[in-house]
Amino acid sequence: MMKKNFNTVVIGGGVAGSSAAASLQNAGQKVAVIENEFFGGTCPNRGCDPKKILLGAIETKRLVEQLRETGIDGETQINWENLMKKKRAYTGPISANTQKWLQSTGVETYHSSGQFNDSGNFEVDGDELEGDNFIIATGLRPSILPIKGNQYLETSNEFLDLDNMPERVAFIGAGYEAFEFASIARTAGAEVHIIHHNDKPLKAFDSDMVSELVKSLQAQGVQFDFNVDITEIEKSEDAFILTDRNGYSLSVDRVFGTTGRIPNVENIGLDKVNVDYDKRGIKVDDHLRTSNSTMFALGDVISRKSIPKLTPVATFDSNYVVAEILGKNTKAIDYPAIPSVIFGTPKLAKVGVDTAQAKESDDYKVTKLDVTSWFSYMRLNEPKAVVKVVLEKESHRIVGAECMSGEADQLINYFTFIIDDKITMDQIGKRVFAYPTIASDLGYFG
Fold first, then answer.
1. Which of 211, 300, 331, 358 is most exposed by smallest CB count within 10 Å?
2. Count of Cβ atoms closer than 10 Å to residue 60 Cβ
């Protein structure tokens, strides 16, 4: 085995790992990156980017249906084959191009699996990589329910690369992916079931707003089977049969597990280098160092409770760790307000102080506004648009928000700026926005 010396070795070539590697290499370090699957990671290869490509057509069809008889005539259909061609044309070159880009900066790349050894070095492809620092950015993977017949469960990986849309689709687990994929599948013409073991989906969001989202998808034809705990998946001649212990039975053409994602912490030898982790991921301090002082973790593989595991957060982590390694940091990492969005039809988004938390304190006022009749939504015939804001009473500032509409992803970014910059409602009222736009509504939320 050949020993090679590096300033930094990065395990995981996703968005965050690749970015950190290139930045450190460009700063004069000698860097290596190991990636065992797709360079570029989940988001551009089989996550947020391909999902948004599919949603481009899905949202357009929904908008046409909303505007039928008020400016639009005729029927629209999703051509899944052509839509998938567009998606694959985007995702196909990403991994190879990302690896080539890293190599062009001087980073040494390994497209393989490896693990730490007892000496604290990383072994891969017959090489033993020694580093002054290591960055662990191995991300997440879909979890698989431990039930009988789980070999028939497919994941987000397969859903986002379907050759054709089946007639009947089931999603087990009512998380982000289930709501997003259900919107896509239903609009593409499938019969869709979301199956959940209780009646409380999307626990990170306001339950009232989630209820509004469920009603909206039900109106589109998505079927929610709550309080159903699937115990077995059986394959028949031409279908999959889903059952529980209480007599529930459903026959579908494809079944997808959407019960969340789990950190990639196994099989890389973390125990050999004394890196602590739990079921949520690798434990880090407020400088993103692990229990081994020469090793950092960043992105989705970090054990987090309050910080969402999102691509922009991983990028934020990456920039921080690069500065830390280069000696440019003295302060602990400090996250700004982080918006979360469920990209369905409609979208559900949140940022800042949680509404449930706010209701328990006299410092805040929570206001729910049905904005369906507001011009921004009326002009598009949106069936339902709702916004909740959390106002800090003393400062008269918006400190939290949730919104459900076709424009929720845009509106939540405005709220994010308002929260981060501590802008008061009085200050918003003194601004002039282009009208009529989503931004011009901001002054009416206080």
1. 331
2. 13
